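pinging the channel bc i need a second pair of eyes. not urgent but kinda urgent?? the chain im working w is below, pasted from the shared doc
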Amino acid sequence: MKILMLGATGPTGRLIVESAIKQGHHIVALVRSRTKAADLAGAELVEGDARDETALTRAIAGCDAVISSLGTPMSPFREVTLLSTATKALVGVMKRQGVERLVCITGMGAGDSRGHGGFFYDHVFQPLLLGRVYEDKDRQEAVIKASGLDWTIVRPTLLNNKPPRGEIRAVTDLSGIHGGAISRADVANFVVQQLTDPTWSRKTPLITW
């Protein structure tokens, strides 16, 4: 498949690009700077802003699906709009170009996964440091759910850089979930799998070890 990748230069995005290429997919990465993305071996680079519909239209030409792992830094005080703004632009372009499949990473604490991160995460870390980011993740998820596209929203638990285990839990019934961790490499492999696996179509799996 030919895949448009947003967020390719982030730590998880880079592993998604690597995993997808190893599995025979062709990756088109929309990046803000070709120079900073020069080490994305095997990916076709298109320079542009993910919020710009013109850049998105140029990058998505001929693609079969889209993966978004867009992220944004912690912002305790300033409003965050990048994720929802870029996703609105992306959904519009996908619909006009007839591209149906979208796999998007948000995170534990978005939507109905809020309150399942454990005491410290739920009551200290997320509200104090990530509150504005997760407000925008919620808006981002709402845009996707209302899009009419064939979407999967992947919500990883806390990310680490450990080697992949190859076996993960993917659940939408969050009873009994209070925190957790997973490697970026396992997230990357799961996300790429969703391109051709309909199991989680129009669902929001939380993934953890």
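so The mean pLDDT is 97. and Strands lie at 2-6, 26-31, 44-47, 65-68, 101-105, 150-156, 158-160, 169-171, 181-183, 206-208. — does that match what u expected or am i reading it wrong
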